[in-house]
Amino acid sequence: MAYLGNKGATGENNSFKILDDLAFTSTFDGSSTAVVDSSADTITINNHRFLTGSRVTYSNGGGGNITGLTNGTVYFAIKVDQNTIQLAANASDANAGNKINITGRGTGVAHTLSVAFDGVNTKFVATFDGGTKAQMTRAAQLFLSHNGVIQRPHDSTSPANGYGIDTNSVIIFSSAPASTDVIFGNLVANNFPTFDITDNKVDTFTADGSTTTFTLSRAVVNNDNILVALDGVMQYPSDGQNTRSYNVSGTGSNSLTFASAPAQGTVIHVRHIGFAGASTSAVTGFFGRSGNISLIDSDPIVGIQSGSVAIGTVRTLNFVGAGNTFKKTGNTIDISIAGGGGSSAFTTSVTGIQTAAAIVGVGTTSTDDADLQGIGNSARGLYVSNGMILYDNAINGNHYIGTSMNGLMAGPVSVNGVLNVDGNFVVV
């Protein structure tokens, strides 16, 4: 993640990248058989920045023309892969793949192909540090100034104004910059669209002496994610400034291309390390969601049950107090809570409420008699205050006073039921 303010002591301290010039010139050896292939009509420029349809100007660099091309002439690129291109006479031919026939090599080592702000080109590859391709998932990762005016970003391949982006680090302007335009840009943090963790898989090939490109078993992000050995000897990967032993053809590619074909019989070992390119376009089957998945509060990480009946889901359970016990059986945890409300202090009885422990106070929810207050609802019709005990003036229902009990009422008292008295009962 990019830092703001003072440079951090740890972490990534170089997230803000200054883009290379979008207009560029690539220089190559027009006399080399490894560069100019007349049988395939291709020109090899490792890790090039050309796009199909890019308008380019060819120069022989003071040498002799590549046969089929003319010095100072405008052509249109056909991108074959990350390291090779073909040329077409016009944009329509380029998009249709109709290439110019190259019949022979030129002379000289300073041939060039140039992409310019020419009022035609609208697409340019974003790179930094001399050729390292930017990794972009949002147009807002770029800050582009067009003649000193900050341009509006669009997550689109056909922006109505300003600029948009396409895959493989491509910037798309709403209108083609002119030769007099000045464009400056910054990239804020490389951002890979997705990745899958690799398992250090090894690909093995046997060279035939002519093949330079081998297909890997999985796509990789870049050269940094593979280790390549020829007959056990580790190879040095190419980078944005230097062409060395091998290169991965494009971001998220599974093409391993050597600068020159390994000798016949050479055993090629490719070990995948770090992070690999995505093997699938998205994550599926995670609570019905796809894409980049984050946990949300409604995800049933912990399901709570009471008596085997589900009562809800939470992210965290916190048990307060001592003496709680837990037993895990499969994916279920049985919980026993000691003390407090979990101790069965109250039990049921045919005679009403009885207690198995000393409980202070009796809770009430309402009073049945509007004339009574205090504990009136705890013992129906009973009022205690100022040293007096008062009862209702009527005994409703059937009652029994046992031999070990005494009763007293100040009357008159109506008995609206059956009163059986074995003990003592006095009405005053």
Keywords:
mainly beta; 7-stranded antiparallel β-sheet; 1 helix; Elongation Factor Tu (Ef-tu), domain 3; 4-stranded antiparallel β-sheet; 428 residues; 1% helix; elongated
Describe this structure in words.
By secondary structure, this protein is mainly beta. Among the domains are: 92 residues, Elongation Factor Tu (Ef-tu), domain 3, CATH 2.40.30; 81 residues, no CATH class; 61 residues, no CATH class; 46 residues, no CATH class. Helix content is 1%, strand content 37%. It has one helix and 40 strands. A seven-stranded antiparallel sheet has the order 2-8-5-6-7-4-3. A four-stranded antiparallel sheet has the order 1-17-12-13, with no helix packed on it. Strands 9-16-15-14 form a four-stranded mixed sheet, with no helix packed on it. A hairpin with a 3-residue loop joins strand 10 and strand 11. The longest helix is centred in the first third of the chain and has 6 residues. The termini are far apart.
Annotate the secondary structure layout.
Layout: E1 16-18, E2 24-28, E3 36-37, E4 42-44, E5 55-59, E6 74-79, E7 84-88, H1 91-96, E8 111-115, E9 123-125, E10 127-128, E11 132-133, E12 142-146, E13 149-150, E14 153-154, E15 163-166, E16 170-173, E17 183-188, E18 196-197, E19 202-206, E20 213-220, E21 226-230, E22 233-234, E23 246-248, E24 253-258, E25 267-272, E26 275-276, E27 302-306, E28 309-314, E29 325-329, E30 332-336, E31 346-349, E32 352-355, E33 382-385, E34 388-391, E35 394-396, E36 399-401, E37 406-409, E38 414-416, E39 419-421, E40 424-427
Parallel strand pairs: 14-15, 35-38, 36-39, 37-40
Antiparallel strand pairs: 1-17, 2-8, 3-4, 4-7, 5-6, 5-8, 6-7, 9-16, 10-11, 12-13, 12-17, 15-16, 18-26, 19-25, 20-24, 21-22, 21-25, 23-24, 27-28, 29-30, 31-32, 33-34
